[in-house]
Each structure stands twice: as C-alpha cells, then as structure tokens.
Design brief:
The complex is a heterodimer of chains A (about 120) and B (about 110).
Chain A lengths: L4 E3 L2 E4 L5 E6 L6 E7 L5 E8 L2 E4 L8 E5 L5 E5 L8 E8 L9 E3 L3 E5 L1
Parallel strand pairs in A: 2-11
Antiparallel strand pairs in A: 1-3, 3-8, 4-5, 4-9, 5-6, 7-8, 9-10, 9-11
Chain B lengths: L8 E5 L4 E6 L8 E7 L6 E6 L4 E2 L4 E4 L5 E6 L8 E8 L10 E6 L1
The chains are: A mainly beta (about 120), B mainly beta (about 110).
Chain lengths: ~120, ~110
C-alpha cells in the first residue's frame, strides 16, 4: 500500500485480556515507530525499530507492553493484561532510514483501543 | 521532552493566511524543523520541513529565521478543513518528540 497501515482500526477488550496491534510500514522503510495518544493528550513515544531490532524501547510504560518486528516489515505491539489506562489510540509510523536528519516520518491512522 | 515552544491556540478567518510561530532555541546544526498536523486524533500528517532555507510545497510555506531559532508555518489561504493541532518539531537523528502543539481554529 501507499501508506502506513494499521489493524485493527478499533478494538474493544475486557480488562485483563491481551491485545495485539499490527503495523504494516511503507514498503522499503527500515525504521518503524510506535506512539500512544490518550484522549485529549499529546503523543507519547513507545518504541523504535531499525530493521528487526529495537535500539530504543525507552517509552514502553511497563513490562506488560512489548513489540516485535519481523522481516524488516510488519510489527506487532502486544499489551498483556490490559488495564483501563491503556485505552488510547496507538499510532505507528515509518521512515526510510534511521539516523538521518531530514528523514521524513509518516504515520498510520492508528488503532483505537478501549479497555472496559 | 519537546524542545520547541508554540502558542497553545490560535484563530484565523477562513480565506486568510494562517501564520503559526514556533521557537526552537536549542536546535542544533543538523536538526531539521518539521511541521505536522493532527485532525481529530487521526494520525499526524506531515506538512513540510526545512533546515536553513525557506521552503514551500502544495500545503504550506515554512519561513526559518537566519539564526534558526524560530520558524513560521504559513497556510496561505486557510480553509475550515485546516482546523487542527499543528506541531513544530526539531528532528534529529531518530525519533520525533511531540510537544502540545498549537490548536488552530479556522472560523467561517
């Protein structure tokens, strides 16, 4: 596809359940980012991938959150034992290369997660 | 933490030019100034970026001061669909760090 694709677009889950959110970056983009945005709040950086490795996981809020990337393409963000405070839109972004200023980052439309 | 400062909100009349200021006083030599906007918590949309020179594309113009410590995003003929939160970001080597942005409201 032409842009960053995320699925599901909306997810309602019960507290305590695990969820997986998927991101398909723009073809050929080696860098991939996950952000979280709670309702009415700013964007919080979660994790960044270069290829299949994650040199910066500094934003993951707890050990319930994990992410992986395979084939230098698709990434999955997993939230275990979801809590109500996990309700947010989870945004994925990608860019062509890492570590290059002036390298534009493009965002998907996000996955809206509601924990009830 | 975000390294840029922007006004919290601005209003502009439809059809007029919207000028959004940004201060990035700690920008380093190899960092670009990026502008994104976000409409109703959709994914942030890339608008424009620049290093030292002024830039223009189909969406907007970017004016960067000579000392690079501030910039202005110009939407030349604002429409109601330009109502959004606009983010100015110093982008270095890796991730983007978003501040609170400017909530721009275009009024009919």
């Amino acid at each position: 596809g032409a842009g960053v694709s995320q699925s599901p677009s909306n997810k309602v889950t019960e507290k305590g359940k695990d969820v997986e959110l998927r991101c398909d970056p723009i073809s050929g983009h080696t860098a991939l980012y996950w952000y979280r945005q709670r309702l009415g709040q700013g964007l919080e950086f979660l994790i960044y991938f270069q290829g299949n490795s994650a040199p910066d996981k500094s934003g993951l809020p707890s050990d319930r959150f994990s992410a992986e990337r395979t084939g230098e393409s698709v990434s999955t963000l997993t939230i275990q034992r979801t809590q109500q405070e996990d309700s947010a839109v989870y945004l994925c972004a990608s860019s062509l290369v890492r570590g290059l200023p002036g390298n534009t980052i493009y965002f998907g439309e996000g996955s809206w997660l509601t924990v009830v | 933490d975000a390294k840029t400062t922007q006004p919290t909100s601005m209003d502009c009349a439809e059809g007029r030019a919207a000028n959004l200021p940004c201060n990035h006083s700690t920008i380093s030599g190899n960092e670009y100034v990026y502008w994104y906007r976000q409409i109703h918590s959709q994914g942030p949309q890339y608008i424009i970026h620049g290093l030292k020179n002024n830039e223009t594309n189909e969406m907007a113009s970017l004016i960067i001061t000579e000392d690079r410590k501030s910039s202005t995003l110009i939407l030349p003929h604002a429409t109601l669909r330009d109502t959004a939160v606009y983010y100015c970001i110093d982008q270095g080597a890796q991730k983007l760090v978003f501040g609170q942005g400017t909530r721009l409201t275009i009024n009919p």
